[in-house]
Amino acid sequence: MRCILLIVWLVLPYLAPVLGALEFVGQGIKDALGEYMLTDIMTDANTGIEFADGEDGFPAFKFLSTADVKSPYQMLLPEKLYEFAILITYRQGSLKGGYLFSVVNPLDTVVQLGVHLSPVVKNSYNVTLVYALPDHSPGRKLASFAVDHVTDKWNSIAFQVYNDKVVFYYDCKVRNTTAVVRDPFVLAFESASTLYIGQAGSIIGGHFELSSNQRPATTSKQQPPTTISKLNISQHINEQYSCR
Length: 244
Ligand SMILES: *[C@@H]1O[C@H](CO)[C@@H](O)[C@H](O)[C@H]1NC(C)=O
Ligand SMILES: *[C@@H]1O[C@H](CO)[C@@H](O)[C@H](O)[C@H]1NC(C)=O
Ligand SMILES: *[C@@H]1O[C@H](CO)[C@@H](O)[C@H](O)[C@H]1NC(C)=O
What we know:
- By secondary structure, this protein is mostly beta strands.
- The protein contains three helices and 16 strands.
- It is globular and about 45 Å long.
- Residues 1-20 form the signal peptide.
């Protein structure tokens, strides 16, 4: 590991001119690589989280109804996103849906960037990329895609967010493409915004909970809570996402 860091530091000066436009200066190695693992904000200090095994040996996090995971977004994310990708692996425990993650303005009233799962209706739900500037109305959707709900299934989703389109991957295959207008094209976060995982703050909510018909009944097997494993935002869009 130390060796890899050394190499990165040796190579950085040569990358600097190239990456200058991405404003990595002062933000360190993570930003230079442009790959942000949002689960990095989870620590032992977070309440309502249990550790679990994810797919492919990834660590996974169970979101109990008391979960409250948040951090100043600047701890992890850059101030601006241009073209970017979001990769998430999750297993739903709730039919009520919720926010897998969100970056919310300082007043906690507008989700600037987030991925929302709608309630399940007739075994189907919508995965929505919420995207707004601070003065936009709350809940603005950039793209929404319908997905079948399968109990206990690990779902892998990815969004490639281009200037003019959003490509949605489900289980490592392109599922759909939507033309979008990003106006302005740059997503600039307000400086005191909050990064939440498994919710969108106290005002908007979007907390994952067990729905009432899943609460521990005397006979039925209790549904495990919603579990999130991979949760990455990348400033580089790979042309293709595959599972391996
Ligand atoms: C997620 O980001 C981390 C670095 O922050 C990287 O090591 C890992 O390979 C990324 N995973 C995927 C699937 O892109
Ligand atoms: C998904 O979104 C479409 C279009 O907005 C809507 O008609 C449909 O009812 C939604 N499905 C669910 C399960 O919310
Ligand atoms: C792709 O999106 C269009 C429009 O939203 C929809 O009609 C179509 O069914 C979607 N295709 C798939 C495979 O989900």
